[in-house]
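Below is how a single chain appears once it has passed through the pipeline. First comes the sequence as given, then the structure the pipeline wrote out for it. We keep one example in the README because the format questions we get most often are answered faster by looking than by reading.
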Amino acid sequence: MTLIQQKGGAGKSTIAVNLAAVSGESNPPVSSDPDAPCPVVAAGIDPQGSLEGWARKVPEESLPFDYLVTKGRLGEIPKLLEDPDVLRVYVDTPGFVDLDPEAEIDDPDPLGSGPAGEAMREVLELTDLALVPIVPVETLTHSPAEFTIERVLRPRNIPFRVVINNWDSGADRTKADLEEMRTWCEDRGYPYMRQAVRRYKLHAKAPDSGLTVIQYPESGTALRGREDFYKLALAVEGVL
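Resulting structure:
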């Protein structure tokens, strides 16, 4: 499963890590051996290794998934998928830093020829489902999401779902912004997850705090934050 969006900051890493966390919590290693592999893996192909920076801060005994950071190296994710113990792999991808500005508008492969583009190509060939995050009101995430779907996913016939992320439910009490975002997807024929991920400071602070959604200190906000990801994970499994 690949988190993909041309624009950075739409929430790819947050969704990848927290889906891996709730999935890993539900799918622990079969063996009690502490060195036994986890059935769930979060993988990052970003050359900057942002997923690694987050996962390394989580205490090992609290991390319910294994993680792999390729930093753009080829061959590591295909090898991972050959492991019979691995059930789910959530791949966090960078923004399209290698986007080819000379590519024709109808070019089915605008990813360019640099290392990041090659790493993206490798992952896309293996993707069973792509999740494309988009943020209500923040229109700068909308066109890049459309570009990602129309220029990268659809030409490759990759199944996808839009994930409405960082929805400010407190400010949008009538759900007008949420419904506008759903209508945006429907008008374009984009399937989307009904479960939106709500905006909470806990999510924004989690990478520096070394926490995933299942380790948040108990509070009403933490409960609602976990609920979003549990429901999203169930919806994802329903698609697969």
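Residues 2-27+34-239 form a domain with the Rossmann fold fold (CATH 3.40.50.300).

See the next section for the split statistics.
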